[in-house]
Design a protein that fits this description.
Length: 195
């Protein structure tokens, strides 16, 4: 099933301390770190948070996934299909290793920026296939992403949610709230009619 690119959502993860780093092994250079941390809440908009559940990526890691810079499809750093991007889930999250092409000046520039600590955040582009919604005691709505189709992971300079993703999540939440209000209203009407 082919997915429309306009439905791909992006989430930016603020890294834990030291989560992105560079590594040299012989002549090979790598950028490595976590593109997603499991069970770590991040705010989508006021009153709405998301978490990614362990296993959310397990069925998509065999797909053709690219590593990008700032979600820019013209700045491809690696690709798992050819072995220049390695992704795996562990108990902490989605870990990745990008083998840097020394002949690519953009990739080398990014490597040096990550090495200095100027760039240390990440994001990923995906489609949600399964999720759970719950309301916490304080009224906050929490979405738990259970399963995704992953398209890309990105090393990013300025983390920010795509406005379309925020708008889509807010619209979804408003639709759910309206439906719940109507259900309560109908139940109350039936109860009053029966009294």
């Amino acid at each position: 099933m082919k997915q429309s690119m306009d439905k791909i959502e992006q989430r930016t993860m603020v890294p834990v301390s030291g989560s992105f780093q560079t590594r040299a092994e012989g002549e090979e250079l790598y950028i490595e770190g976590y593109f997603s941390v499991f069970n770590s809440p991040y705010e989508i908009c006021p009153g709405v948070i998301e978490v990614v559940a362990p296993g959310a990526f397990s069925e998509t890691l065999g797909d053709d996934i690219r590593a990008l810079t700032n979600h820019d499809t013209t700045l491809v750093l690696g690709r798992n299909k050819i072995g220049t991007l390695t992704l795996r889930e562990d108990g902490h999250g989605l870990w990745g290793s990008i083998r840097i092409n020394r002949e690519d000046q953009d990739a080398m520039n990014l490597y040096r920026r990550v090495q200095r600590g100027d760039v240390d955040q990440c994001s990923f582009g995906f489609i949600i296939l399964d999720e759970k919604r719950e309301i916490l005691e304080d009224g906050t709505v929490r979405y738990t992403i259970l399963k995704v189709k992953l398209f890309e992971v990105s090393v990013v300079t300025f983390p920010a949610y795509e406005q379309t993703s925020v708008s889509a999540r807010m619209k979804q939440e408003e639709t759910i709230r309206q439906r719940l209000f109507q259900e309560k209203k109908e139940a109350l009407r039936k109860k009053l009619k029966g009294a």
